[in-house]
Amino acid sequence: IVEILWNVCELPRQSTRDIKVAAVISMGLVPLDSAPADAAAEEEDYKGAPRTREEQIDYLLEFFLDENAKDRGYLVRAHAPRAICKLMENLDQEVYTEKKKAIVKALAPFVKKQGKGEKELRQSASLAFGLLGDLDGKDDGDDSDVKIREGLISASTDTELQVKNFSVIALGQVGGRPGTSDTPLAGESDV
Questions:
Q1: Short-list 9, 1, 180, CA closest to 80
Q2: Long-range contacts, stretch 74-78, CB < 8 angstroms, 24+ apart
């Protein structure tokens, strides 16, 4: 199934925009198994369809960030962050933390006042931050949640009304989710 969805996303002019949107959303609903912990990186230059959930996440993140591909319009790319967040559910904690750091780093330029990209991309990235973030502090060596809250607070002052509103909604989601570190409510005063 994932290979078919990948083909719809990848082949130039294979489908109309709404079909590509459906493929991106669907990829988030069809998680593959995670790579075994002891699996070595097989082929570093592999360019085919994702074979593991981690590869699905990487592919969708790359898809979102690829602003130069003619067949990847921003309205299609705007659906990738939500699909990524769905794939993050129930991942092994170590893999989750690693992927979360990469996602936050990649989406952070879109989630701030007057952020990068079209408003639809900024709206989508803000909503994704609401799904990923919690109230953890920096004490566990992972500052992703702090960066999420800082980005959303900044984006909540954006001049584009929907970005602003989605950022406030996302802050509410983050504020309602205690963290998993030794200080699970460290960011409570931020929100």
A1: 9
A2: 74/117, 74/118, 74/120, 74/121, 75/17, 75/21, 75/120, 76/17, 76/20, 76/21, 76/24, 77/24, 77/121, 78/118, 78/120, 78/121, 78/123, 78/124
pLDDT tens-digit profile of 118-131?
Answer: 999 999 999 999 99
Q: Where are the beta strands (DSSP E) in 19-177?
A: none
> Is 149:171 a contact under the CB 8 Å cutoff?
yes
Q: Indicate whether 42 pLDDT > 80.
A: no
Residue pointed to by tokens 């790359």: 62
Please say whether the beta carbons of 127 and 166 come within 8 A. yes
Task: Give this prediction's pTM.
Answer: 0.89
Instruction: Give the length of the chain.
Output: 191
Provide the greatest CA pair distance for the chain.
50
Inter-CA distances, 110 with 54, 85, 116, 128, 154, Å: 22, 16, 5, 11, 11
CA distance 11 to 113: 34
Contact 67, 80 (CB under 8 A): no
pLDDT at 184 over 90: no
